[in-house]
Specification:
Largest sheet: 7 strands, mixed
CATH architecture of the largest domain: Alpha-Beta Complex
CATH class of the largest domain: Alpha Beta
Shape: globular
Helix content: 10-25%
Structural class: alpha+beta
CATH topology of the largest domain: Fumarylacetoacetate hydrolase, domain 2
Length: about 300
């Protein structure tokens, strides 16, 4: 089987779906001879059928020695422009839960699984996605913008009330995300702690550029177990997060299955599956203009962005 990745890249005619083979990017439409599939969402909306088409097309392209665009010269955009929803898991790594308990000077909560709890998610604005190598303006209202390395799941077919043992069948692939967060605007300071209106999710999570994603989608069939991947993040080449997806409290399958009981998941939807320990809040370190952030996930790739 020839390995490939799905991308969205900037062409002369606009954003186009592409396929990365080796060190080259090929236009997906030309590769597959399907003129109507110009975006990654077009492909994901027919993902069950398109996988076999891709398998044949990439083999034929390799055999025919077709030339694409050198990967180093291609401008890659966010892989999905734009998902209908971005679901973000909260407090989903054991090491991060311990870290946050230390910051807040409280006893760590018991394992949510042992307490019978389910995964919980918030929603991030879909237009906040940007691609690798993008420059992200820091929001002017914040002095505490934090990083969060996350494995992102890309849904490949409509999912409603899916059983846990079938949940991964609904995943088209995986990509890398940095779930940027504004720590000084997570709550409204003038509201009492007991108020149900205390939290300011828009300011906290959905500023412009708050969801860097990329560089591409690695097809799910190339990643047998999403719970066996290393995950790391660097700021200016200094390692800040170094963990493993096996430390998730609720697995990828848990999250897909649970979310599908609440809302129908659609092709192209993203699920950001939580961040491990090592966030800036724990160090009282926050992003500043000129910082370069790299997020790496094993077997997927590296997402790089600069803050401005």
């Amino acid at each position: 089987m020839t390995s490939y990745k799905l991308v969205t890249y900037q062409a002369a005619q606009g954003a186009r779906a592409g396929v990365v083979l080796g060190e080259e990017v090929f236009d997906a439409t030309g590769l597959m001879s399907k003129s109507s599939y110009t975006t990654t969402l077009d492909i994901l909306n027919d993902w069950m059928a398109m996988q076999a088409v891709f398998d044949r097309a990439v083999v034929e392209a390799k055999d025919a020695k077709i030339k694409g665009i050198p990967l180093k010269e291609a401008k890659l955009l966010a892989p999905v422009l734009y998902p209908s929803a971005i679901f973000c898991a909260g407090a989903n790594y054991t090491d991060h839960m311990q870290e946050m308990a230390t910051i807040l000077k409280i006893e760590p909560d018991p394992d949510p699984r042992s307490s019978g709890l389910k995964p919980w998610h918030f929603i991030k604005a879909s237009r906040s996605v940007v691609g690798t190598e993008s420059t992200i303006p820091l929001p002017v209202y914040s002095k505490m913008v934090d990083w969060e390395a996350e494995l992102a799941v890309v849904i490949g077919r409509p999912a409603k009330n899916v059983p846990l043992d079938k949940a991964l069948d609904y995943v088209a692939g995986y990509t890398v995300a940095n779930e940027l967060s504004v720590r000084d605007f997570s709550t409204r300071q003038y509201m009492p702690d007991t108020s149900p209106f205390k939290y300011d999710w828009v300011s906290h999570k959905s500023f412009d550029g708050a969801c860097p994603v990329g560089p591409w989608i690695a097809p799910a069939k190339e990643i047998a177990d999403p719970q066996s991947l290393g995950i790391k993040l660097w700021v200016n080449d200094v390692l800040k997060q170094d963990s493993h997806t096996s430390r998730m409290i609720f697995s990828v399958a848990d999250q897909v299955a649970h979310l599908s009981t609440r809302i129908t998941l659609h092709p192209g939807d993203l699920i950001l599956t939580g961040t491990p320990a090592g966030v800036g809040l724990a160090r009282r370190e926050f992003l500043k203009a000129g910082d370069v952030v790299r997020v790496w996930i094993e077997r997927i790739g590296t997402l790089t962005n600069t803050l401005a």
